[in-house]
Specification:
Main location: cytoplasm
Shape: globular
Protein name: DM10 domain-containing protein
GO molecular function, one term: nucleoside diphosphate kinase activity
Helix content: 25-40%
Pfam family, one: NDK
CATH class of the largest domain: Alpha Beta
Number of strands: 14
Number of domains: 3
Subcellular location: Cytoplasm, Cytoskeleton, Cilium axoneme
Strand order of the largest sheet: 4-3-2-1-6-5
Strand content: 15-25%
Length: about 400
C-alpha cells in the first residue's frame, strides 16, 4: 500500500551472552507501529516485522534507545536519505542551556519546556571553565564582554538536547527576547521574562538556526574574533553544536566534565518509565521545592550488565530484582547527585523517606506526598531509585558520574 512507508535507522545492541556489539538496520513503520531488524553482519533478518509493546513514533531519533522485546536498541544514525530528510524536517534537534542563576529552578523550567511539547533527548549538568570558553572562542580585546564570560563560568549550566516539530522557532518563542527587561514588557510569559534579570543574566540560551542546531563536527578551535558590536547570542553560537556537550562514540571531542562532588550526597535515579512519561521536570521540581540541592544531573542509558551490576545488592533479597534490572535498562534514565544545605539528618535517610515506600500503592495510603506515591505505578515502575544505606550514597553516585561517565 502506498501509505506503508518506513523509516530506516542504523542501530546497535550489545549481546551480553555472546559479548558482541551487534549492528542492525532498524525499520519502523508508522502506519501500524511495527518494527523490523536486519542484521548487518549476517545480512539476514534478525526480527521479522512485528509489533512491539511500548514504542511510539516519537521514540525514533538519533541517540534514542528503544526497547524491543527486552533488548535495548540504540539508534546511531539515519540509514537512508528519505528518513533523514523527513525526520529532520519534522523533528528538529536543538541545544538549549539553562544558565548558572536558574540552577535552583531546573525542575520548573524543564516542566515548562515539556509542557510546550518538547522532548528531552539528553541532559547534563556541567561546569564550564575559563579555558573551555577561551578554547571555543578565541576572544581578544573585548573587555566589555568580561562580565558575560565571568557569568558563564560562575556556576553550573544544564545542557539540553531538545527535540520538537519546528523546534527552533518554537524555542525562540518560549525563550523570549534576549534582554529580560524588554521581555517582561513585550513577552511576559516567556522564560527570560520570568527567570532572567537582564541581557546577560537571561536564564536560557538555545539554537537560533537549523544549520547551527544540526551541525555535527569535531571539537576544534573556532577562528572567530568577537568585536564589541557582536550580540550576546553570537558569543554562545558555537556552543549550540550538540557534539560539544553530547559527543558520540565516533567523536574525537572530549566529554565536558560533570559536576559531581561525591561528598555528603545521595543518589536519585528517575527511572525510564518516568522519563518516557515526561515526568522529569515535575519530579525535579518537587525535589528542589523540598529543599534539596541537585549538584549533578545527567541522562544515562545502561545495558543489562550495568543495570545488574548496579542493583546487585538486591539480588536474592528482593523477588523483583530481575524486573528491576529490566526496567533500569529499558531506556534512558536521569541520575542526580542530591545533597542539602543544612546540617540536618543524614541526606541518604532523609531523601529515602522523601521518596516513600517502594510500593506506590502503599505509599499512596500512608505517605501520599512522597515521590513514589505521586509518580509511581508498580513496585518496579515506582518512578525513583534512591540510595538505601548511608554508605551507599557516594558509591552509587560514583558508579554513574565517575565510572559510567568515564566510559
Amino acid at each position: 500500500m502506498t501509505t506503508d512507508y518506513r523509516y530506516a535507522f542504523e542501530a546497535e545492541w550489545y549481546d551480553k551472552i555472546a559479548c558482541l556489539l551487534k549492528k542492525f538496520y532498524l525499520y519502523y513503520y508508522p502506519s501500524d507501529n511495527t518494527v523490523e531488524l536486519f542484521d548487518l553482519k549476517t545480512r539476514k533478518t534478525f526480527l521479522k516485522r512485528t509489533t512491539s509493546e511500548g514504542i511510539q513514533a516519537k521514540d525514533f531519533y538519533i541517540g534514542a534507545v528503544v526497547t524491543i522485546f527486552s533488548r535495548s536498541i540504540k539508534i546511531t544514525a539515519y540509514a537512508d536519505l528519505y528518513t533523514e530528510t523527513k525526520l529532520e524536517r519534522q523533528l528538529q534537534r536543538i541545544l538549549a542551556l539553562l544558565k548558572p542563576d536558574v540552577i535552583d529552578k531546573i525542575g520548573e523550567i524543564l516542566r515548562i519546556i515539556t509542557d510546550h511539547d518538547f522532548q528531552i533527548g539528553n541532559i547534563k549538568m556541567v561546569q564550564l571553565t575559563l579555558d573551555q570558553v577561551m578554547e571555543c572562542y578565541p576572544i581578544k580585546d573585548i573587555t566589555d564582554k568580561t562580565s558575560l564570560i565571568n557569568y558563564l563560568t560562575s556556576g553550573p549550566v544544564v545542557a539540553l538536547e531538545l527535540l520538537g516539530e519546528n523546534g527552533i522557532t518554537r524555542w525562540q518563542e518560549l525563550a523570549g527576547p534576549e534582554d529580560s527587561e524588554r521581555a517582561r514588557s513585550t513577552a511576559a510569559s516567556t522564560l527570560r521574562a520570568r527567570y532572567g534579570r537582564d541581557e546577560i543574566r537571561n536564564a536560557v540560551h538555545g539554537s537560533e538556526n537549523p544549520e547551527v542546531a544540526t551541525r555535527v563536527c569535531e571539537r576544534r578551535v573556532l577562528r572567530m574574533i568577537i568585536n564589541i558590536n557582536v550580540s550576546i547570542s553570537c558569543v554562545l553560537e558555537y556552543f549550540q553544536e550538540l557534539q560539544y556537550f553530547f559527543p558520540d562514540l565516533k567523536s574525537k571531542s572530549k566529554k565536558v566534565k560533570n559536576t559531581a562532588v561525591l561528598q555528603n550526597c545521595t543518589c536519585c535515579i528517575i527511572k525510564p518509565h518516568a522519563v518516557q512519561a515526561k515526568l522529569v521536570g515535575a519530579i525535579v521540581k518537587d525535589i528542589q521545592k523540598a529543599g534539596y540541592i541537585i549538584t549533578a544531573l545527567q541522562q544515562f542509558c545502561v545495558n543489562s550488565i550495568m543495570a545488574a551490576e548496579f542493583l546487585e545488592i538486591y539480588k536474592g533479597v528482593l523477588p523483583e530484582y530481575n524486573a528491576m534490572v529490566a526496567e533500569l535498562q529499558s531506556g534512558p534514565c536521569v541520575v542526580m547527585e542530591v545533597s542539602r544545605k543544612d546540617e540536618g539528618p543524614n541526606v541518604v535517610t532523609d531523601f529515602r523517606n522523601f521518596c516513600g515506600p517502594m510500593d506506590p500503592d502503599i505509599a499512596r495510603q500512608i505517605r501520599p506526598d512522597t515521590l513514589r506515591a505521586k509518580y509511581g505505578k508498580t513496585k518496579v515502575q515506582n518512578a525513583i531509585h534512591c540510595s538505601d544505606l548511608p554508605e551507599d550514597g557516594v558509591l552509587e553516585v560514583e558508579y554513574f558520574f565517575r565510572i559510567l561517565d568515564g566510559i
